[in-house]
Design goal:
The protein has about 70 residues and is mainly α. The protein has helices at about 5-30, 45-55, 55-70. The longest helix has 24 residues, at about 5-30.
Length: about 70
């Protein structure tokens, strides 16, 4: 049985709705300011540098990677 076009559209819209917060968070992460604004006015990797140099973040990322590989 062929899936109707409106059901495919509904699934696509729901997936976009679910993914949109993650997409916005990734875009906003490149803003240099501490206050969230969309769209970002300035470009910076400041928050990624802070995450990589934060030991607790690195430990959590490593633990997540190990669990992912063992699952």
């Amino acid at each position: 049985a062929a899936v109707s076009w409106w059901l495919r559209l509904l699934v696509l819209l729901l997936l976009a709705f679910i993914a949109m917060p993650a997409v916005i968070a990734c875009i906003v992460a490149f803003d240099a300011r501490a206050i969230l604004n969309f769209p970002p006015q300035t470009f910076s990797t400041r928050w990624f540098e802070r995450a990589v140099t934060y030991e607790d973040f690195r430990d959590g990322a490593w633990n997540s990677l190990v669990v992912m590989l063992l699952a």
